Amino acid sequence: MTTYGQLKTDAAVWLTRDDLTPFFDTAMRLTEAYLSRRLRTRAGETVSTITFTSDTAALPANFLSLVSVTTQDAESPSVDVVDPIVLRTHVVQGLTGQPRRVAVEGLNLLAYPAGTVADPYTLNLTYHARFDTVLTTPADDSNTNWLFTYAYDLMLYAFLSRLGEVLQDEDLEQRYNTKAERCIETLILQENLARSSGGPREMRVRMPEGT
């Protein structure tokens, strides 16, 4: 298992520099933000529940993107995920019962029909979550997460690229960003192959919203 401390050591050796310590945490914050935007993996999928007493409920704090939503009604579990504008413009007043549609709206999940305080309902939520940060207080060089264990090349290249950004070294930033992007492409391909489970070669690449 690789750790944040090992990553810092490797970065210093890789760049043959001994003056990088003041820049490491800033570079890691940028690395985590970059990977949160670019990566959606099975390892990052989390299952939770969310209860509605109105038409909206707060999404989990570590939420990145939605995978699926189901009701707890075994006979009719399916819930459609739609654009919030579509949901709000197709409301039938007075409709009650289990939700038929949901939409991500800001930091909330919007559902229709709405729950009420007197008659709430709970949905099962599968979503992509942020990987645990390695930047904790107090600092701990033994901190790690899934990426350090299973995608260390990506972690190293992304970290070196963000160090280049912090140091305002454009050549360093671009050189290792290219390597990081190649790692991401490979990881996405592996994810798609694993999801297909040997079925027909129909690639369905799941990319983050806005990329």
Low-confidence blocks of residues:
198-211
Query: In percent terms, what proportion of residues is strand?
Result: 15-25%
Radius of gyration: 21 Å
Overall pLDDT score: 89
Please give the count of helices: 6
> Major sheet: order of its strands?
2-6-5-4
What is this entry, summarized?
With 211 residues, the protein is an alpha+beta fold. It has six helices and seven strands.
What layout of secondary structure does this protein have?
Layout: H1 4-14, H2 24-38, E1 45-52, E2 56-58, E3 63-71, E4 80-81, H3 84-89, E5 101-105, E6 108-112, E7 121-129, H4 146-150, H5 152-166, H6 170-196
Parallel strand pairs: 4-5
Antiparallel strand pairs: 1-7, 2-6, 3-7, 5-6
Helix pairs in contact: 2-5, 5-6
How would you explain this protein's 3D organization?
By secondary structure, the protein is α+β, with helices and mostly antiparallel strands. The chain has helices at residues 4-14, 24-38, 84-89, 146-150, 152-166, 170-196; strands at residues 45-52, 56-58, 63-71, 80-81, 101-105, 108-112, 121-129. It folds into two domains: 4-42 and 131-196, no CATH class; 44-129, no CATH class. It contains six helices and seven strands. The strands form two sheets. It has a four-stranded mixed β-sheet with strand order 2-6-5-4, with no helix packed on it. Helix 2 crosses helix 5 (152-166) and helix 5 (152-166) runs antiparallel to helix 6 (170-196). The longest helix has 27 residues, at 170-196. The two termini are 31 Å apart. The model is unreliable at 198-211 (pLDDT under 50).
